[in-house]
Amino acid sequence: MNATRDFDVLGLGVVAVDELLYVNDYPAAGEKVRVNRREPQCGGLTGTALVAAARLGSRCGYVGTLGDDEASRAVAACFDREGIDVAHAVRRPDARPGRSTIIVDARRKTRTVFSHVEGHFGPDPDRPGGDVIRRTAVLLVDHHGMAGTLRAARIARDAGVGVVADFERDPGGVFGELLALIDHLVLPERFARELTGAAATEEACRRLWSPDRRAVVVTCGDQGCWYCDSHSATRPEHLPALAVEVVDSTGCGDVFHGAYCTGLAEGMTLGERLRLASATAALKATVPGGQSGIPTRRSVEAFLARQA
Ligand SMILES: Nc1ncnc2c1ncn2[C@@H]1O[C@H](COP(=O)(O)OP(=O)(O)O)[C@@H](O)[C@H]1O
Ligand SMILES: [Mg+2]
Question: Is the CB of 290 under 6 A from ligand 1?
Answer without folding.
Answer: no
